[in-house]
Amino acid sequence: MKLNRLLTALVACSLLLSATILVLQLFQKQAQDEARAQLNYIMTVQGSIDVLRSRLWLLQRYNDETSLKESQRASARMKDTLDTSVSADASQGAISNLQHMQRAVDRLLILSQKNISQPNDISMDSSQSLVTSRINMLLLSMSEEVLVLHQRVQAHVNEVQAKLSMSSGIALALLSLSVTALMLVFRHRFKGGLASLIESIRKVRQGELVGLVEAKYDDELQLIADELSDMKFKLNETMVSRDGLQREVDKQTRQLKEQHDTLRRLANTDSLTGLLNRRAFDIQVKSAMARARRTGTHAALLFIDLNDFKAINDTYGHEAGDMLLTTVSERLMESVRETDLVARLGGDEFIVWLDLLDEDINVDIAVARIIQNIDKPITLRGDTLRVKLSIGVALYPNHSENFDGLMKLADESMYKAKSMKNQQHMTVHISHEI
Q1: Which of 149, 164, 185 delimits the end of a domain?
Q2: What mean pLDDT value characterizes the chain?
């Protein structure tokens, strides 16, 4: 038998196997849908029983027309539910019993209506209690009947599933044996040629891309061998080495990570000094304010401006001015704690957030430390300078509990401090607005 004929028979058996699986799945789905519909119906019936029970409780408690009408409506809905029963051999007897008991409930509700119409009759009250008890017994019986119905339906579903499983197993086993037999014949026919092709493929996978591929027999497998030979030649011409490709991927990954880190750093820091920029400072300060609000601690916002920076910049040049700003930034960072925040707004303006202060007096200590560090001599172009500061201070929460309000007060205080500056001393102004 030719290989193509064996393949045709194998394909036919495979298609038959697939079709059989599909048909069995359809039967399985149909059975599941029917079971689901029956179980949903049972849940609906149980739900209508529970509703009627709750309305009956109201009737028993209040014994009025409103409760009676609610009970009658609940009974009518139960009747509609039972009349739309899902057809199933396992449920027909139970549904009939439930319908019979529902009609009995209707009759008892009619009797209850007569009792309610004569509220002052003691005998009627006793009769009403008996009616209510009888309805409760009927509802209990209906719940038990629903439980039995559920068990019957479940048993029926299990039986159907077992039959389908058995039929599926037998059909699939027979078809699988047929496919296996054809595969064994096919394997025996081209075992030698297949071994040769497998060996050639293994060599290609290991990176050997030279030489021709030959099948053991001159049959259809040789066509595959010729195609494989052609593929080896083309791969040898175009494919880069695996190690080289991996190195290139690693290199590109490192570059992308570095670019990502750089972009993230630029988005949150000042490019000259490395301090936080205004955007990052705003975000972190608002978080710090929320933390201070929870813990009941104090904080302070310092608005700092370098005195006569323009004159220094004009005298020594922009490069020296940048060096001065960098030095001031470093000294500010050295003057504060790790929990504090320092940012550059732009030009010669800086802002500092003093976090988690037990008392406002600690602000004076922090400001004194900043002044002491900034007042150290700085050498620019061979000249020794002493940088002077104007500092405006706004206290949280004394002056404002709003970040924008604190910024406004600290800015105004800084300008008041600048107006008081002289050539010898730095100036500090603490806002007194509350």
Answers
A1: 185
A2: 79
Q: Are residues 18 and 132 in the same domain?
A: yes
323 close to 385: Cβ distance less than 8 angstroms = no
- Assign residue 179 the CATH number of its domain: 1.20.120.1730
Tokens describing residue 116: 């309610």
Domain of residue 196, residue span: 191-238
Q: CA 68 from chain center: how many Å? A: 50
Q: Do 134 and 50 share a domain, yes or no?
A: yes
Give the helix, strand, coil percentages of the chain, each rounded to 5. 70, 10, 20
> How far apart, in whole angstroms, are the C-alpha atoms of residue 88 and residue 121?
48
Are 419 and 342 members of one domain?
Answer: yes
Tell me which amino acid residue 323 is.
M
Q: Residue 385: is its pLDDT beyond 80?
A: yes
- Residue 301 reports pLDDT greater than 80: yes
Query: Global pTM?
Result: 0.43
Instruction: Please report how the helices 65-83 and 3-62 are oriented relative to each other, as an axis angle in degrees rounded to 10.
Output: 160
Question: Rounded to whole angstroms, how far apart are CA atoms 339 and 366?
Answer: 13
Question: Distance (Å, rounded) from C-alpha 301 to C-alpha 354?
Answer: 6
Under a CB-based contact definition with an 8 Å cutoff, are residues 402 and 307 in contact?
A: no
- Domain identity same for 196 and 216: yes
